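Write out a record, fold above all:
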Amino acid sequence: MQNNRDNRNDTRRGMPKPAGPGRRPQGDGRRPAKPTRGKPAPRVTARDAALRALQDVVRADAYAAQALDRQLSESGLRADDRRLAASIFYFAVENRLYIEYALGRFMETKPEPVVNDILHVAAAQILFMDRVPDHAAVDEAVKQARAAKREGFSGLVNAVLRGLIRARDAGEIELPDREKDPVEWLSVRYSIAREAAKRLIDAYGSDEAERIAAWQPPRRETTVRPNRLRTDAAGFETWLNGRGLKWRRGVVEDAYIVEDGGNLAAGEGYRRGEFSIQGQSAMLAALAVQPRPGMQILDACAAPGGKSCLMAERMGGSGRVHAWDVHPHRVELIRAAARRLGLDNVRPAEHDARKPMDSMKLSMDAVLVDAPCSGLGVIAEKPDIKYRQSEVSLSALPPLQRDILDACAGAVKVGGLLVYATCTILPDENELQARAFLQRHPEFEPDAGDGWLPESLRENLRDGMIQILPHRDGLDGFFIARMRRTRP
């Protein structure tokens, strides 16, 4: 997935900018793109694009990266204004609860949604972006309110934002007391839903929970892996060098970290299926199966298909990877990925993984259950996940994961492997879930083999289980457990 955090050279993530003068102007973002022949110049500004993307996220539950990509592709903005729009958008999304907390002191009640979103976009600039002049953020917010036919709110927008600037400069925006309420402090400080913050603190303690919440990759990078059926390491490195890309090898075999690679998915090499874009932890979840030619593998929760395709490639195009998803449109994503990569041994199918398939009983060499989860291991890439969680949503996940594990375990043949994986860091979805499964299913035992893991991660393997932590390991937060069937 392309990372749109272009040129985010303002204040460090989550750290409000200091008070006082001396901030350098970055422009007001209203410069239109150069007109093209036969087309009027677009009227969308950088702030308009950021606002519309934010509304897609908070009003339509769109994923952040996809919402921004869609708005930028439709905006017609020039490169510098696209970067400004991306910066505003991500600061607004990543710090949503902090911004709401800061704005709350100037309003007795929250305004209607469109006005609230306009205030959030402006507050993101005021609180986190050194190079944006305060007057530009305020003036453009007032214009946006008027353009949205909310003329009656323009005075409120102006007053609230100017009050926010004064409070910032006076150092009067104080966080909740960390000693008295560490959960509320963590929730506001890092814009994490209160229930998720509570669970992080319960699992890791206050200090470690903060390190988890605060971590961000040091630079904009994309992880790619070559399609082994179409190229080898030397050929792929020649391809990378030929395009002037700055890269280094990752810790996972076949992983290449590309710095400032732009939208690699738009390139010809990607369309021809020469490589895939996939994080290292996600690769590890597939490699934990240790796919080999001729195997029969079930990927029970497979969409969008990256892990299925990696396993199929490692199998040399032989055997079968049965790739399930419960939603037809997501099955099509798997099918499209396999087609792009030239993989005939991937078999996508619409199926609810909570329901056993009798025809597969005791027949699979390996089953991968990459279960639905809270996603708190990948908040650096999907910041909107942080505040979407609630007591209801978090409590609903372990029973769902349990049902999928129990249903899919029956497909593993004697001597075969069951791999359970999530992209979260909460124990009740991870280690506790895996250990409860082993208690219910004495026919399975932990598989302690570590040959599938990079050497740098092996010390964290316990009873065939590993919890990858972003701030410690520099990878997306994933849990992976390997369990071997020893009898029918």
About this structure: Residues 182-214 form one domain. Residues 288 and 452 are 6 Å apart (CA to CA). The radius of gyration is 24 Å.
